[in-house]
Amino acid sequence: MQQRVAASPSAPQQESAEDLPEPLPEPAPEEMRLEVVMAALSDPLRLEIVRRLLLESEAFDHTCGWFGFDRPKSSLTHHFRALREAGLIRQRQYGLERRSQVRVHDLNARFPGLLDLVAASPSQDL
Description:
Blueprint: H1 34-41, H2 44-56, H3 73-86, E1 89-94, E2 97-102, H4 104-110, H5 114-120
Antiparallel strand pairs: 1-2
Domain HTH arsR-type: 36-116
Protein name: HTH arsR-type domain-containing protein
Region (Disordered): 1-29
C-alpha cells in the first residue's frame, strides 16, 4: 500500500523524527485486535477518514478540519479517538491541534491486505 503524496511548492516540509512531538497513546502493534479494528472501521465516517488519509494525506499535516466534514468538533474528536485507540491512526499534538496519519507499516504487518480494502472502498458522501 503506497500513500499518494502531493508534491507542491506550498506543501509543508517533512519534519525529521527528532522534531516530531510524541504520539498520543496508542496500542502496540502486537496488541491490536482485528475485532476492535473492524469495529472502528464499521462506522462510515471513520472508514472515510482512514480512506482519505491513505489516499490524500501528506505526513502529519491533517487536522480534523482538513476533511471538511459538517460535524461538531466533539463528534469528530470521538471518531478520531476511536480510530487511534483501535490502532488505525497515530496522532500527534501540535499546540491546540491534533494531526493524524494511518499506521500503514504496523497495520500491513499485523493485518495484511486490510488497508488495500479500505483504500479500494468507495468514497462516502458525508
